Structure formats: C-alpha cells, structure tokens
Amino acid sequence: MSPKSKASKKPVSEKTALVDNRNDTSGYQVPTKGILSKLPASWVPYAELIRLEQPHGNYMIYFPHIVGLMYATAIRPTPVSVLVHRAGIFAIWTFFMRGAGCAWNDNVDQEFDRKTARCRVRPIARGAVSTTQGHIFTLLLVLAGFASIATLPIECTYVGIGTTILSTIYPFGKRFTNFAQVILGSTLASTIALSAYSIGLPALNSHYIIPTLCLSATIMLLVVFYDVVYARQDTADDLKSGVKGMAVRFRNHLEGLFAVITISIAGFLTTLGGMVGMGHWYYVFSVGGLTFGLVSMIALTHWQLLPSWAGKSGYAYAFAILSLLTGFIVEYCVKDNVQ
Q1: Which residue among 97, 177, 236, 326 is buried most deeply as judged by most CB within 10 Å?
Q2: What is the pTM of this model?
C-alpha cells in the first residue's frame, strides 16, 4: 500500500461514526441474557423502548403512589384489603404509564439521543422502531393505563389526565429550560393526590390541600435530587448537544443544590406532620431517616468519602425512601390500634 493510500485512511472515532446516523446499529448488542433474550426478536425493540430490562424505573415511579396511599390512610385509616387492592391497581398503572413515558421521551428526544453516548442505541434512535410506530405504541400504553384505573373514583381519572399532560411536556422542557427535572418531579408528585383520592381522601380540598402540596413538593424534590445525581454522567455530552438540565446549570454548584433540596424536603415534611397531627415516629423515620439517607447519598457520590462504596449510593437513596414510607406506616399502625 502506498504512503498516499495510508494517509487517506483516517481513523474515525466510534462517536463520530454513530452521531446523526439514523440506521447505524454500531455499538448495539443483541441481548443474550436477561428477560430481553427470552423474547421474540421482533418484540425486543418495543421491550427496550419501555425499559423492560430496567425495572428500577418502575420502582421509582411506583413509590409515590404507595407514599400517597400511606399518607392518606395515616389521616383516614383504611382497611388493609383496600390498600392492597389500590396498590395492585397502581402497579399496573405504573407499568403502562412508565412505558408510555419512556416511549414518548425517546421519540421526542431521538435526535438528541443520537448525539449522546449512553442513548444512541435506543430503539428509535438507532432505527429499530420508526417514529410513527413509537407514537402508536405510546398511545396504546396510555389507553391501557387509563383502563387500569377506570374503576377508581372519577377524581383519579382527572388527576391521571394531569399527570399525562405533564409527562407529555417533560421531554420538551430540556429544550427551553434548565429545570426540566422539576417538570418530571411534578409529574410523579401529582400521583400523591391520585392515590389519596383512590381511598376517599379529598386531597385537594381546603382542609388537606396544604399538607398534600407539602408531600407533593417532597416527592418532586426527591425526583430532582435523584435525577441530578445520575445526570452528572451525561454533562459533557449535554453541553455539546445543547441539552439543558439542572446537572448542567448547577454543574459547579452541586453541593449547594443538594443542600437546599435536602433542607427543603425536611421542612416540607415537618410542616405536613404538624398540620395533620403526626406522632413522633413519623419525625424519626419520615423526616430524620430520609434526611440521613440523602446526606449519605451526597457523601458517597459527591464528597466521595468512601470511594469503594460510590457504586452503592443507590442503597442510600432506597434507605431514604423506605424511611419516608416507614414513618407513615407506623402512624397508620398506631392510629389503627388506638381506634
């Protein structure tokens, strides 16, 4: 080979080869293990679209429903059988609506995804699912979600419509604001009212609206906290592609942001407890335990106090969420025994 021909063959980086190539599947590996490997090949892109292989997203979206149920029943004690029934319905609702949200997000963000290392092999971005197919699939998932809550009080459907509208807006938020995570958090926070109405607590009437909003704000901030912590890995790609976000906006002030969020959450929960007459175990678990969990997560991911534990920071967040739930559960048990 001549020197000229050698010089003409310039190396092309993987990133350059993948960016903006709609049908390039370079970097994509056909699943060989896990649930995706057991599905028919034609189903796999749709299963990937709803993140079937990543169930932690379902847990993230499901927990506000359970928090909402326990908040409502701590105020208005409800039979365990009813709580279990509502929890089952919301598990189905969560599965379909989370899938719809992921599919819609991937469709709207497909051009951005092709420019982001972590996202460029997603089904729509790589061309395995077309834009039209993605929209139809999303609509079917939404219809299935609303069918699952059709037997609940009509207020649940109204709140569900609001939740769906917020979910629709969210992916566009990254184009015009650095606070798209607030929209995402508000989407999940709206499920507090949905859950409360499902067992008969008028969550948004004049008597309960302030504590309901305090808990909703808590959920919103918890989602923002989690999203910012893990969005940091995409900051470099987001800066290049122009994607906005709080991790980008506050990239040089993350410690201060986390501190404000943690203190605000503690304040909202304390206000809620005082307004509805929660007992001391609520403050121990829901306020104190949750705050400890969030501070631990900051220590592991931002301060890097224990480098070997950095990859286990999710456990600290899980501890915070379980503490929040535990406070309401204990209140329910105590009030049920008193009555």
Answers
A1: 97
A2: 0.82
